[in-house]
């Protein structure tokens, strides 16, 4: 092949592969982070899961931490919509929380996803330089508790919960249950076991 033919020939594309879909790639990364955690999901494993090479990874996501944040945001958007819908669709506050935890038992034990929750026990211990990841996950966990507290306060305004009850403490209790069920699921608890836990917890729901 002559020099002119080489110059005229199509050049190999660099960067993202043909047909690359960012949303699909982020979903693949999200599942890997969910299963292995931030530290456990290696750069190589993430690139393989997303079907891209190192150059594409860096050109698209810059850093592993930036990808983790994007994957976490995708998870929160998906589960946050589910969470908010359950709390708001029932007019009775007890019914709302009963449904929340019954569906949580199903969500945490799905066969097509990692067990438990991506947020509940994530980034509790991080190496120096990654404290912002711990803060991010803490904020997500706190946000869920605030949503629970607001729903309980609404129940109080609707005279479904006694006025003297501290809804902030009750929300903290239910958020602890919510996170604990995720850990139970990761440790192998069955769906029926989580439903049994839910039944006991709802027995303590104030009248």
Task: Give a verbal description of the structure.
It is a single chain. This protein is mainly α and 207 residues long. It has a domain at 71-203: Orthogonal Bundle (Tetracycline Repressor, domain 2). Helix content is 69%, strand content 0%. It contains nine helices and no strands. The protein has helices spanning 3-8, 22-40, 43-50, 54-61, 64-89, 93-107, 131-157, 167-186, 191-203. Residues 1-15 have low confidence and may be disordered.
CATH class category label of the domain at 71-203: Mainly Alpha
**Per the principal axes of the C-alpha atoms, what is the gross shape?**
elongated
CATH-defined architecture of the domain at 71-203: Orthogonal Bundle
- Topology as H/E string? HHHHHHHHH
State the end-to-end CA separation: 85 Å
Mean pLDDT: 89
What is the overall number of helices? Answer: 9
List low-pLDDT spans: 1-15
- Structural class call reads mainly alpha
What is the C-alpha radius of gyration, as a whole number of Å? 22 Å
Helix content: 55-70%
Keyword list:
Tetracycline Repressor, domain 2; mainly alpha; about 70% helix; about 210 residues; disordered N terminus; 9 helices
